[in-house]
Amino acid sequence: MADIKPTATATASKASTSVQPKRSSNSISWIAPLACVIAGYIIWRFVLGDASNFDKPALPGTERYNWFWPGHEGPKGNLVKAYEGGIIVPLLIGMFLMVITFAIERFLTIARATGKGNNAEFIRKVQYHLANKNVDAALQECDKQKGSVGNVMKAGLRKYKEMITNTELTTEQKVQGIQKEVEEATALELPMLEKNLVFLSTITSLATLVALLGTVMGMIKSFGSLGDESGGAAAAANLAVGISEALYNTGLGIATSAVAMVFYNMFTTRIDGITFGIDESGFTLTQSFASLYK
Known about the structure:
By secondary structure, the protein is mainly α. The protein has one domain. It has nine helices and two strands. It has helices spanning 4-15, 28-48, 88-114, 119-131, 135-145, 148-164, 171-194, 197-228, 232-292; strands at 54-56, 73-75. It has a two-stranded antiparallel sheet with strand order 1-2. Helix 3 (88-114) runs parallel beside helix 9 (232-292) and helix 8 runs antiparallel to helix 9 (232-292). The radius of gyration is 30 Å and the shape is rod-shaped.
């Protein structure tokens, strides 16, 4: 019977856990990519591809006109030349907009998860209150922190406070109960921190590959035009123009990939700092309880 009792208590303790699943919508993960690609096409087709930006615009009724992809010629500016990079350009513009969108979303989420003040200072204050056996004051510090570290610490402190008055479990079992509560709280916090980072990591590689595809398509088109030309000088000029246009894909893809990589590394570094604070908070609680309530 002595072996059954702690198990029943642990089960009851689990049922009354303070850790509750967080419900959050992630509709941005499928709305944003679609919206960004559409916005990329609009920018490419109606901003860069505006007829006034070309010396030889393809107007409705002419042979080169196509509503989806008008065959404008003679761009008036360097930026407008990106329009002639082809249909891959709006995809790359869309990817760049995705990077900006998810970077803003992650920045706001991680800033909220970081909470107020310095995590190291927060943990020191909690340690001070626990050393004085003032758990309520430690809980108040968690309410002030308002971040992921504070949320995990608060869940652990509630179990900590519950274990102080528990007379049925051994000290080791109480420490394990606190540790389990911290682990459950951590399991709920980390997915929220890492959510949507996969888009930034994917675009880091995908943007370069898509840009390379656009460049290859442009080169094929350029060399195809070279074979159709009869004049040597005119053919060489068209080839040079075609290669220049194709390389706009490469430039836009590399720029998008670089920006995505910078944001991804910045966010993962901040998440690592939060994760370290969570691990330290769990260690603080278990060590404090083990030393003060033997």
